[in-house]
Amino acid sequence: MSVKDEIPAIFLDKVSPRGLEAIQKTKDFVEQYCIPADRIFHEQISLDPATRWKQVPEILEPLKKKARELGLWNMFLSKHYKEGPQFTNLEYGLMARYLGRCHTAPEATNTSAPDTGNMELLAKYGSKVQKEKYLQPLLDGKIRSAFVMTEKGISSSNALNISTTAVKNSRGNFVLNGNKWFASGAGDPRCAVWLVMCKTDNGKDRLKNHSVLVIDAKHAIESGKAEVVRPLHVFGYDDAPHGHCEIIFKDYEVPSEWMPEAVLADVGRGFELIQSRLGPGRIHHCMRAIGSGEFALLRIAHRANHRIIFGQPMNRREGFLMQYAKSRIEIHKCLMLVLNAAHKIDISNAKEAQTEIAMAKIETPKAIGEILDWGVQVFGAEGVSQDTELAQMWAWNRTLRIADGPDEAHLSQLARKEAAKFPKADTFFNNVESRVEAISKL
């Protein structure tokens, strides 16, 4: 099927011919190369604890080479960045829909988290030195990165709560102390740079008390004062060799020769940078989630075509067909929400699209999670095993209701914005009442 038939009609004329070609190439690449490669990827992950976190599945490099040949590389860098192919957020969102159908596709196209958000930050705020040392190798897929923000024992959904300190000593160097965790990507042997959210001040303006430091990961670990303690499991998955790691800083001193290049943008701009990073990233996550939901429906349909339940094929049972139709509606609803948010970012910016982003971020993981859960139920015991992709997709999707801000935080923000509009209701009905007498005389 052509991707033109799968793009909602209201958005079709907003996709350029170049974007449409890239979306079609993405779909074909995922179906022909990445989905078959997923099984090989998991088979190539070492089961030996001594090597599990030191080796990267070999299948990734041929996939990356093929993606570059097709021009499917760094597509997430929108028209606002000269370093990327300059697709719109809407166009890349439609590509991410297909990338989300399997595990290997995002990394194969150099569009996997957390590198995407980190590259956007470095592209937008990085100095010449930071871009040469870290951004370009990331753009080339030669190294990987981690975003080190979330903290153990801290409500990290509010970035202002971050308490890991970076205090300047007598030599003017930052000294870091704190306990971070769920640093995605920190377990990868190719991880060369950490972007670390730290508290650098205790001033009255809470919005200027934090900074993002650019840290050479290997130097920090070798110093013995920054320890990658362990990979944390996500519903039992350790996601090797990527990992979501706990990191402890104990008087880690940033070398003098790194100053001032150790700071991204400027001291005190950490909160601003975090907000900048999260907007488009939430769109990427949601579109990949939609892709996983569509893949789940394909799995479910295939199962139903070959399953007899009480003497009747599952694909003819009314209860199954009704649930399938409802799931298709849910996916389309989410697709419209997310694409609308992406388009709003394109025509304005992420700040102006906060309401649309919040709606998409709240609804999509929840709706897709219910579809994935149903898929597990359709497969029964097989659905919770490693013999289908559904269990791991469910686990990944469930984390989205926490990652990049939990449901409650987005609902609260959305509710406050809507509550601010309540006075308009009084104005509306006052106007109605004032017109009643005039209308009655017509």
TrEMBL record:
<dbReference type="Pfam" id="PF02770">
    <property type="entry name" value="Acyl-CoA_dh_M"/>
</dbReference>
<dbReference type="InterPro" id="IPR013786">
    <property type="entry name" value="AcylCoA_DH/ox_N"/>
</dbReference>
<feature type="domain" description="Acyl-CoA dehydrogenase/oxidase C-terminal">
    <location>
        <begin position="268"/>
        <end position="416"/>
    </location>
</feature>
<dbReference type="InterPro" id="IPR006091">
    <property type="entry name" value="Acyl-CoA_Oxase/DH_mid-dom"/>
</dbReference>
<dbReference type="InterPro" id="IPR036250">
    <property type="entry name" value="AcylCo_DH-like_C"/>
</dbReference>
<dbReference type="Pfam" id="PF02771">
    <property type="entry name" value="Acyl-CoA_dh_N"/>
</dbReference>
<feature type="domain" description="Acyl-CoA dehydrogenase/oxidase N-terminal">
    <location>
        <begin position="50"/>
        <end position="142"/>
    </location>
</feature>
<comment type="subunit">
    <text>Homodimer.</text>
</comment>
<comment type="similarity">
    <text>Belongs to the acyl-CoA dehydrogenase family.</text>
</comment>
<dbReference type="InterPro" id="IPR037069">
    <property type="entry name" value="AcylCoA_DH/ox_N_sf"/>
</dbReference>
<dbReference type="GO" id="GO:0050660">
    <property type="term" value="F:flavin adenine dinucleotide binding"/>
</dbReference>
<dbReference type="GO" id="GO:0005737">
    <property type="term" value="C:cytoplasm"/>
</dbReference>
<dbReference type="InterPro" id="IPR050741">
    <property type="entry name" value="Acyl-CoA_dehydrogenase"/>
</dbReference>
<dbReference type="InterPro" id="IPR046373">
    <property type="entry name" value="Acyl-CoA_Oxase/DH_mid-dom_sf"/>
</dbReference>
<keyword id="KW-0285">Flavoprotein</keyword>
<dbReference type="GO" id="GO:0003995">
    <property type="term" value="F:acyl-CoA dehydrogenase activity"/>
</dbReference>
<feature type="domain" description="Acyl-CoA oxidase/dehydrogenase middle">
    <location>
        <begin position="146"/>
        <end position="251"/>
    </location>
</feature>
<dbReference type="GO" id="GO:0033539">
    <property type="term" value="P:fatty acid beta-oxidation using acyl-CoA dehydrogenase"/>
</dbReference>
<dbReference type="Pfam" id="PF00441">
    <property type="entry name" value="Acyl-CoA_dh_1"/>
</dbReference>
<protein>
    <recommendedName>
        <fullName>Acyl-CoA dehydrogenase NM domain-like protein</fullName>
    </recommendedName>
</protein>
<keyword id="KW-0274">FAD</keyword>
<keyword id="KW-0560">Oxidoreductase</keyword>
<dbReference type="InterPro" id="IPR009100">
    <property type="entry name" value="AcylCoA_DH/oxidase_NM_dom_sf"/>
</dbReference>
<dbReference type="InterPro" id="IPR009075">
    <property type="entry name" value="AcylCo_DH/oxidase_C"/>
</dbReference>
